[in-house]
Amino acid sequence: MRDERAEAKREARTLDEPAQEARELAERLGLAPYPVRYWVVDHDEMNELIAYGGFQQRYPHWRWGMNYDRQRKQDRHGLGKAFEIVNNDDPSHAFLQESNTAADQKAVITHVEAHADFFANNRWFGLYADRGEGGPNAAARLARNADRIAAIMARPDVDRDAVERLIDAVSALEDTIDQHSPVDAARSADGPGIDADVNDDGDDPLAAVEAQIDELDLSEAVRRDVFDDEWLDARGEDVEPEDPRPDVLAFLRDHGKRYDPESGKAVGREPWETTVIDALREEAYYFAGQKSTKVLNEGWATYWESIMMGGERFAGPNEFLTYADHMSRVLGSPGLNPYKLGFELWTHVELQAARRDVIDKLLRVAGVTPETFHSRVDLDAVAEALDPHPAIAGAGPATLDELADLAAEGDPRVDAETVDRALSARDAATGDASEDAPDDAPDIERYPWKLLTREGLAERHYVLSRPEHRGALRSVSRETLAERARYMFDVDRYATVEEALADVDRTAGWERMLEVRASHNDVTFIDEFLTEEFVRERNYFTYEYSRAAEEYRVASVDADDIRRKLLLRFTNFGKPTVVVLDGNFRNRGELLLGHRYNGVALDEASAKATVERVFELWGRPVNLATIRVEYSEEAIRRAKRRGREPEGKEVGVRFQYDGGEVTEHDLDPEIKDRIAADEIDYDTKPDDWLA
Question: Which positions are tagged coiled coil (predicted)?
Answer without folding.
Answer: none
